[in-house]
Amino acid sequence: MKVLKFGGTSVGSAHTINQVISILEKKSDNEKVICVVSAVGGITDKLLNAGRLAQSKNKDYKEAFLAIQRSHLKLIDTLIPKKNKEVVKYVEDTLKELKDLLDGLFLINELSPKTTDKLLSFGELLSSYIITETMKSRSIYAERKNAQELIVTDSNFTKANVIFKDTNENIKTYFKSANQDITIVPGFVSRSQLGEITTLGRGGSDFTAAIIAAALKVIQLEIWTDVSGMFTANPKLVKHAYPIKQLSYQEAMELSHFGAKVLYPPTVQPALDLNIPIQIKNTLKPEETGTTISSEIELLTKSPVKGITNINNIALLTLQGSGMVGIPGFSKRLFETLAQEKINIIFITQASSEHSICFGIDNSDADKAKVAIDTAFENEISLHKIDPILIEDGLSIIALIGDNMKNFQGISGKMFSTLGKNNINIRAIAQGASERNISAVINNNDVKKALNVLHERFFEVKTKQLNVFIVGIGNVGEKLIDQITQQHNFLKKKLKIDVRIAGMANSRKMIFNEDGINLNDWASQFHYAEKSSLQGFFNKVVDLNLRNSIFVDITADEGVSKWYDNYLKQSIAVVACNKIACSGTYDNYKKLQDLSLSYNTAFLYETNVGAGLPIINTLNNLVASGDKVTSIQAILSGSLNFVFNNFSDRTNFHDTVKRAQFEGYTEPDPRIDLSGIDVARKILILARENGGVMEIEDIDNKSFLTEANLNSKTVDDFYKTLKADEAHFQKLYASAKTKNCQLKYVAEYKNGKAKVGLREIPEGHPFYNLEGKDNIVMFYTERYPEQPLIVKGAGAGADVTASGLFADIIKIGNK
Ligand code: ADP
Ligand code: ASP
Ligand code: MG
Fold first, then answer.
1. What whole-number distance in Å separates Cα of residue 666 and Cα of residue 685?
2. How far is Cα 357 from Cα 359, in angstroms, rounded to an integer?
């Protein structure tokens, strides 16, 4: 004999009921089958809602009733086209009885636990009747047996306790003489010893099935539902969760107690007592393996953590005070008080100082608990021995569960560091002595993120999802998007990094998608986008609360750079090619470095110097490995290099600068490049990376421009002065030429001092032949005293800048 239980979603429509019937027919081929059914999907909630409306004198209860009536009538119409009058009459009479009950509740303005049970029992009674009659109409040998005639309980309404002696007797007696192939039993409903209608608690149909399975010592209990087993985490919240093949009874119990709703917690015990295996299966995908819960699990050492669960809407209560220290009996009184109020404690921690005790209960019990505890400890509170109880709500518990966790070190470390890295604040921690469970209390709105990062950490070790938010969609931004699109699959496969762009903004509009923006048509999405603002962008990134979030600044805007500290404080990494933050005041630079350290969040800006060339990275590696930099000699301006490579006595300076600007090698305002300020900022950043405490004013910048050039008010004016001062530039050229030198704009950092300026570079010097818009940096160090470590290559351009940004993003992924 087998016991199968089908949940609400499995009997939610004619289609799924047909599927249930086909499963039952197959199962009953060679043995008798008992089938426990829930109410039609969603009906229990609807009944409760109708009852509450009626109780609060809200006439909408009538419409709520009609909706319940419609669902059931529609089911019999579809399932039993040729129905006899008796069937219709039974259903109509039952619905009439329900209607009368609701009318009564409306009149007396009351909904007691006892009446609640009566009200909710209609769900299972109707569904079991309709399913049985459908089978009979198809000549299947099925009968219904009302569980209220089998399961006996006490009078603890809404969650009655089973009286097993009587219950087991009833079940055994009935099934001894039952002849039908299939017996349909309504789950959840029961009857007290005094004959009152009771229920086993929300989700209790699973328990009904377990009780019957145990009473009859069947060979297997099957729980059929809408998912293919007990998953590694709630599949509705974690897309990558997958079914766990095997679980021990203890693991299953722990998972269900800590929120894996797929199994009602008390279900496991009766099966465990008799060693009856439980299978969890999917009604719509019966071919899938599902989960087996038994005592014979193979030791799967792969992951000591079997599942991650969550219970939402928890309130955390803290009882504290110096009067608690060393005085026995506080906890006992506290828990007795809660027990008297029938408040279930889900979570407890106590610091070893005994100065405070902290416990988690359902939000809805919080007020009741406060009143009861403050009353029970009134005396101690008035003597200031303890404080009035503290309540924090809006919290959730998340838990890692697995039998084998105790044999592995460092699991809690991994759990908490993963949460910490993602800025998930932990309010309290508990670990059972069995080490089968490590739980933490966090904010409700962090649950989805927490489950996903933990799932990634413990079950998908391999892929790490990065959520990128880009501000500034110009040339470089577009190139970065192209590169991410192109490399997406490769990165996922080779580096196990899943890079998604979850938000983008230009100065006018911004778009977001928490599942990643579709990169094939991102541009068209801007048409319907919301107006952008830096505050709005920040708020949205924080609200989305996605794991491994990275803010990427591809602007040259000071306003944007002012937001970095806010992002870092939310543990959101910052990647910037904007160099304003790193070359602004030292205090600000230092503050950002410190935030990055204290929030353990990356702040990367490799592209601040030499675009995609690994200059900052190389310097950081030299310093980190203990080398000492004695000097840095560099050409750091692609624009100036381009200008001086093309300027000669056969061209003129004005036209050469114009051309550089036209080809995109200068800033929109070429004065920033030609004045040397851009190079000064870059050498300043390198000096700071080397440990130098410096401001931009400390950099010796002797300009090769004339007073008139420097004093020009606008870009147009500037060009005019360049034309007027052509002779000055020709003189610079001629001087270099006579010495057989090239003009190069050089930055130098030596003995803690930095300077930038135009120099005449002799033939043979590594700078002499530097072409086009290339950059070169020579690091002279203790380990490279004569032959410097040289980094050289294209130092400007959208493509290489984008790839530098991309490299920073991937670096975060590899961390
Ligand atoms: P039924 O109506 O069949 O009793 P339930 O709604 O009670 O179904 O339980 C199934 C639901 O449990 C799933 O749809 C899923 O949303 C939820 N659930 C939560 N945690 C888990 C988990 N770890 N594994 C599977 N399902 C889970
Ligand atoms: N119908 C009841 C509920 O929704 C019992 C069950 O489905 O297990 O809680
Ligand atoms: Mg259920």
1. 20
2. 7
Position 25 pLDDT exceeds 80: yes
Round the average pLDDT of the chain to a whole number and report it. 94
Confidence of residue 434 (pLDDT cuts 50, 70, 90): low
Report yes or no on 774 lying in a domain: yes
Lowest mean pLDDT segment, chosen from 103-107, 425-429, 700-704: 425-429
Evaluate: CB of 44 within 6 angstroms of ligand 2: yes
If asked whether residues 677 and 740 sit together in one domain, one would say yes
Q: What's the confidence (pLDDT) of residue 96?
A: 98
Last residue of a domain, one of 186, 218, 250: 218
Residue 236 belongs to a domain: no
Work out how many domains the chain is built from and give that number: 4
pTM of the predicted model as reported, rounded to 2 decimal places:
0.75
CATH number at residue 350: 3.30.2130.10
Distance CA(765)–CA(763), nearest Å, equals 6
Q: Nearest C-alpha to atom 8 of ligand 2 is from which residue?
A: 203
Residues 89-95 have a mean pLDDT of 95
Q: Which residues line ligand 1 (CB under 6 A)?
A: 7-10, 38, 203, 225-227, 230-231, 233-236, 260-262, 307
Question: Are residues 600 and 623 located together in one domain of the fold?
Answer: no
Q: What is the CA 56 to chain-centroid distance, rounded?
A: 39
Residue 630 to residues 466, 606, 779, Cα–Cα distance (Å): 38, 21, 8
Q: Do 555 and 631 belong to one domain?
A: no
Q: Active site residue: 118, 479, 540, 682, which one?
A: 682
- State in Å, rounded, how far the first CA of the chain is from the last one: 54
Residue 569 lies inside a defined structural domain of this protein: yes
Tell me, yes or no, if 591 is annotated catalytic: no
In this structure, the answer to whether residues 620 and 595 fall within a common structural domain is no
Atom index in ligand 2 nearest the CA of residue 202 equals 9
Residues 533 and 482 in one domain: yes
Read off the tokens for 606.
């490799």
- Same domain for 623 and 683: yes
β-bridge partners, 749:
632, 754
* Cβ atoms 398, 309 nearer than 8 A: yes
Burial 249-287 (b: 16+ CB within 10 A, else e): bbbbbbbbbbbbbbbbbbbbebbbeeebebbbbbbeeee
Q: What is the pLDDT of residues 665-687, one digit of tens each?
A: 888 789 999 999 999 999 999 99
Residue appearing with tokens 């199968």: 4
Angle at 263 between CA 435 and CA 344, to 5 degrees: 65
SS (H, E, C) 56-110: CCCCCHHHHHHHHHHHHHHHHHHHCCCCCHHHHHHHHHHHHHHHHHHHHHHHHCC
CB 226 within 8 A of CB 283: yes
How much distance in Å is there from the Cα of 207 to the middle of ligand 2? 10
In CATH, what number is assigned to the domain containing residue 697?
A: 3.30.360.10
Q: Measured in angstroms, how far is the CA atom of residue 399 from the centroid of ligand 1?
A: 16
Ligand 3 centroid to residue 604 C-alpha, Å: 48
Domain of 142? 2-218
**Residue 700, strand partner residues:** 755
Structure tokens given for 636: 């750091």
pLDDT of 97 higher than 90:
yes
Furthest-apart CA atoms within the chain: distance in Å: 117
Ligand 2 atom nearest the C-alpha of 205 is 8
* CA-only gyration radius of the chain, Å: 36
Residue 383 neighbours by CB under 8 Å, 6+ apart: 323
